[in-house]
């Protein structure tokens, strides 16, 4: 492994650690359930692929929000189950693509909703709140960590 690769590995690891610790800290201090697996995955994507289209703020917010809306509707109609979770995760792909906001962890958000049937306020907390925390952390890290520019675009 050469020096450039080692530097990239170290930068991505520090970014992932910082993003996940930020989610954990906000969860711990506020009591909000922000440290859910889909949002941990989002933080990982921002750390590992900060310039990827699916890591951009627009994709994170629209992806998680649209997936949650789809899953809330399906869960209200069919009730929570592994089947609802599977269908919600799959169907969440359509609005993400139509909105040009692909974000793979949002499928996990839809599945989580399909399994657990949370109240509609789940859309605000943790979905919007966790998305904002991850994006804010990515922006700060993008200013601090050398070679870790984030976001690549706000569109």
Provide the descriptors you would attach to this structure in a database record.
mainly alpha, 7 helices, single chain, 155 residues
User: What does the overall shape look like?
Assistant: globular
Order of helices and strands: HHHHHHH
Quote the beta fraction: under 5%
Major β-sheet profile: none
- Average per-residue pLDDT, rounded, comes to 94
Distance between the termini: 35 Å
Low-pLDDT ranges: none
What's the total number of strands? 0
Percent of residues in helical segments? Answer: over 70%
Radius of gyration, in angstroms, nearest whole number: 16 Å
Structural class of the secondary structure composition?
Answer: mainly alpha
Report on this model:
The chain is mainly α and 155 residues long. The protein has seven helices and no strands. The protein has helices at residues 3-30, 37-48, 57-78, 82-91, 93-98, 105-116, 124-144. α1 packs antiparallel against α7 (124-144) and α3 packs parallel to α6 (105-116).
Tell me the layout of helices and strands.
Elements: H1 3-30, H2 37-48, H3 57-78, H4 82-91, H5 93-98, H6 105-116, H7 124-144
Helix pairs in contact: 1-2, 1-7, 2-6, 2-7, 3-4, 3-6, 3-7, 4-6
């Amino acid at each position: 492994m050469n020096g450039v690769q080692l530097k990239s590995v170290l930068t991505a690891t520090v970014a992932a650690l910082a993003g996940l610790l930020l989610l954990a800290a906000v969860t711990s201090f506020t009591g909000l359930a922000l440290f859910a697996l889909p949002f941990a995955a989002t933080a990982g994507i921002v750390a590992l692929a900060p310039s990827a289209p699916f890591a951009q703020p627009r994709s994170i917010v629209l992806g998680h929000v649209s997936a949650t809306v789809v899953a809330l509707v399906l869960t209200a109609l069919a009730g929570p189950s592994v089947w609802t979770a599977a269908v919600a995760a799959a169907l969440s792909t359509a609005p993400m693509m139509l909105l040009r906001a692909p974000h793979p962890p949002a499928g996990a958000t839809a599945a989580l909703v399909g399994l657990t049937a949370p109240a509609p306020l789940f859309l605000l907390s943790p979905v919007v709140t966790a998305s904002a925390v991850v994006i804010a952390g990515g922006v700060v890290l993008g200013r601090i960590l050398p070679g870790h520019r984030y976001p690549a675009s706000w569109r």
